[in-house]
Amino acid sequence: MNEIIGAIEQAIYLIATFDPEVVEITIRSLYISLTATFIASLIAIPVGGMIYYYDFYGKRTIINLIQTLYSAPTVLVGLFLFLLISHQGPFGFLNLLFTPTGMIIGQTLLIMPILVGFTITALVGVSSHIKELAISLGASASQTIVTIVKEARYAIMGAVILGFGRAISEVGVAILIGGNIRGFTRVFTTTISLETSKGNIELSIALGFILLAIALIINLMLNFLQGRD
Amino acid sequence: MNNKTIAIIAAVIVVIAAVGVYAYTTVTGPDKSKLRISTTTSLEDTGLLKELEAAFERKYPGVDVHVVSGGTGIAIQYGERGDVDLMLVHDKARETKFVNEGFGTNRTEFAFNYFWIVGPADDPAGIKGLNATEAFKKIAEEGKTNPQVEFVSRGDDSGTHAREKKIWNTSGIDINKTKGPWYIESGKGMGDTLIIANEKNAYTISDSGTFLSFSKEGKIKLVPLVTTGRDLLNVYTAIPINPQKHPRTNVEAGNNFVNFMLSPEGQEIIGNFGKAKFGEPLFTPVPTNPVPALIAPLLSVPAHS
User: Smallest CA–CA separation between B170 and chain A, in Å?
Assistant: First the structure.
């Protein structure tokens, strides 16, 4: 018990004094996961809108598949991407392995299903008469989608935040694709894993605290948005 | 409104294309400024590599060293796939195979220490004073009957794990048939495995560097029980990746790093590492240091191919 208390004191000290390593890892983690969330949103929201809007053969199957991928193990996504971007893989020439860019791609792939799926759910939640109204007023397909997305924006933003939460807390892609290189691809989760295996509990706890604080902020934002919706 | 949507879609396409072009133009051809090293957990966990890296980067300011650490098994995998430029590993059998198959240019031994069989201070299996093979036999025998005797194996295809399997073999024990509840496979790096063994009061085999750094910092209470003998010699080797196999390899930086480790400056860093903190060095540099007669025949002159 004393060990835990001592480690927590150390951790608070590291955070309060803006320990350069802690700061650097925090900034890198946020950069990678925010960029991944941004790119995923840019693609997922329009795709979700189109899947919602159009009726086509196999729509139900696609939605089922997307929902299955919600729980895709992060190490599986990491392994899949590793085989693609490793030097021997089809995209090896891009030199993406062990880079932050590779990690961004991995996290984007990881959270895309959540964003597409939750966007569809959010849009379904918008009363269907808005869709019919827009169409009856002569709106084109894209105009209608934009209108509905606007109506469901808070629910969609909730999905985006959820996706970000999954991105920043995952370790499979970060370690398999990033390689945990000090000062280059080392993020919260990989550092916690490494430092714990080295027996350095203080740094792990400090980073764990920051990660928890970020989760708390995310949760507060989510509550705020849901309250407004 | 429709035009606006089209404009947004066009903008997105332009951004994606721009990122693609940027990625393509900046990453083709060998990256002179980056040296990617895959290494074993012991060199990373003890902190030796961090020190070597810092000194190397001071000497070659244009090169950025990127270290990816794992067991020797995964480190060699990265080398075979061409995902790194240089490997620092410790498993002679697999190293020789790697070089013979043309993946690496040559093996250069740069440091050694010993594998230690470590365990609880009260030594329930009574292995103190035995040699490595006798100790393993004793642990296996006692493990079957005495619930206090447990052994934690890395089980991760690392250099340490390879050596453990080799010692089981020399002891005449087929570990796959003999293993029971007393034989625990951690599937993790050296640090984690030591911590697990410590928690369970079990025996394990560790490189002396990681063990000393953990033990002196009070992270573990285990004690070294068998520490000498030919079976336990642990030689670390540097192998640059063969550019004929993987043309993108940063040959120059890789060779510079090897030469740096062999230079008086590098040897001094290796030979002094840990002295201040742990009271004794964790590694002995090769080859400028006088090699103990016992192990001299085990160290080979690097075979240049």
Answer: 30
- Whether A125 and A155 have beta carbons less than 8 Å apart is answered as yes
Helix axes B2-27, A141-151, angle to 10 degrees: 90
Spatial separation of the C-alpha atoms in residues B236 and A164, rounded to whole Å = 42
Residue contact A42–B12, C-beta within 8 A: yes
For A95, name the nearest residue in chain B, comparing CA atoms only. B27
Q: Phi and psi at residue B185, in whole multiples of 5°?
A: -105, 115
Pull the structure tokens for residue B54.
């810092």
pLDDT for B189-220, tens place per residue?
899 999 999 999 999 999 999 999 899 888 99
Does ipTM surpass 0.95 in this model?
no
Cis peptide before B287 (omega within 30 of 0): yes
A85 touches A92 (CB < 8 A)? yes
- Average pLDDT over chain B reads 87
pLDDT digits (tens, 9 = 90+) for A58-75: 999 999 999 999 999 999
Q: Do B27 and A95 touch (CB under 8 A)?
A: yes
| Cβ atoms of residues B134 and B231 within 8 Å | no
Q: Where are the alpha helices (DSSP H) in chain A?
A: 2-16, 20-53, 59-69, 74-85, 100-125, 128-136, 141-151, 153-169, 172-178, 188-197, 201-228
Nearest by CB to B31, from A95, A196, A197: name it. Answer: A95
A107 CB near a chain B CB, below 8 Å? no
| Contacts across the A-B interface (CB distance below 8 Å) | 63
Q: What is the pTM of this model?
A: 0.83
- Please give the backbone phi and psi of residue B44, each rounded to the nearest 5 degrees, phi first: -80, -45
Q: Choose the closest CB to A198 out of B1, B45, B81.
A: B45
Backbone region of residue A195 per phi and psi (left: phi > 0; alpha: psi in -120 to 50; beta: other values) = alpha
Distance, CA of A225 to chain centre: 18
**Inter-chain touch A98–B36, beta carbons under 8 Å:** yes
Structure tokens at B179: 């293993």
CA count, 13 A, side-chain hemisphere, B111: 28
Chain B CB within 8 Å of residue A146 CB: yes
CA gap B302, A181 in Å, rounded: 29
pLDDT for the residue numbered A57? 93
Question: Which pLDDT belongs to residue B28?
Answer: 45
Dist. CA A121–CA A146, nearest whole Å: 16
From the list A87, A96, A184, which residue is nearest B81 (CB)? A87
Residues of A in contact with B188 (CB under 8 A): 197
The Cα of B59 is separated from the nearest Cα of chain A by a number of Å equal to 19
Closest CA to A39 of B195, B15, B146, B4: B15
Q: How confident is the model at residue B31 (pLDDT cuts 50, 70, 90)?
A: low
Collect all residues of chain B within an 8 Å Cβ-Cβ radius of residue A182.
50, 67
